[in-house]
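Work Package 4 report. The design task specified in the project plan requires that, given a folded chain encoded as structure tokens, an amino acid be chosen for each position. We show below one input record used in the internal validation round.
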């Protein structure tokens, strides 16, 4: 099955995202911002036990989901960016939390032409392709239609090495 593939290692190097989105239902949509947020929360967010981003949100827009991941409720979010400031690891980029809600539909119904996001990405961080989940190569499936390449954070990364 083909999936939308995003390489966050490439994507996060850009100073400003220039990718366009062809989401049908409203043209001001920036589905790529939604896609980057979803992929980053799933793969590189550290899901802190005492998550400062959650406690800093005045509108209860962030909470820990039952599976342990941090989730943002976009209809509650006012884009005050207090979570970005509170995140001690810099995971919540300020452009992740726009006031206008955005949605990526993964262009699953698109046939025959390249989605606008892929065609407009100057660094080729996006693609639609057959891909296998490969933890050794840092390729992770996030949901049914998305594959993400990113160095996934784990607690072992900060554990002191035993001699």
């Amino acid at each position: 099955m083909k999936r939308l593939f995003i390489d966050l290692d490439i994507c996060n190097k850009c100073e400003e995202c220039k990718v366009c989105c062809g989401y049908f239902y409203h043209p001001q949509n920036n589905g790529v911002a939604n896609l980057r947020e979803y992929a980053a929360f799933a793969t590189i967010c550290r899901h802190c036990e005492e998550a400062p981003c959650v406690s800093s949100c005045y509108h209860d827009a962030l909470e820990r989901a039952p599976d342990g991941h941090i989730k943002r409720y976009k209809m509650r979010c006012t884009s005050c960016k207090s979570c970005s400031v509170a995140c001690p690891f810099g995971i919540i980029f300020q452009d992740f939390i726009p006031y206008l809600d955005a949605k990526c539909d993964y262009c699953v119904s698109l046939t025959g032409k390249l989605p606008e996001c892929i065609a407009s990405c100057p660094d080729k961080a996006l693609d639609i392709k057959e891909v296998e989940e490969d933890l050794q190569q840092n390729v992770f499936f996030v949901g049914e239609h998305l594959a993400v390449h990113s160095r996934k954070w784990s607690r072992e990364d900060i554990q002191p090495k035993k001699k």
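The CA atoms of residues 75 and 101 lie 8 Å apart. Validation will be extended to a larger panel in the next phase.
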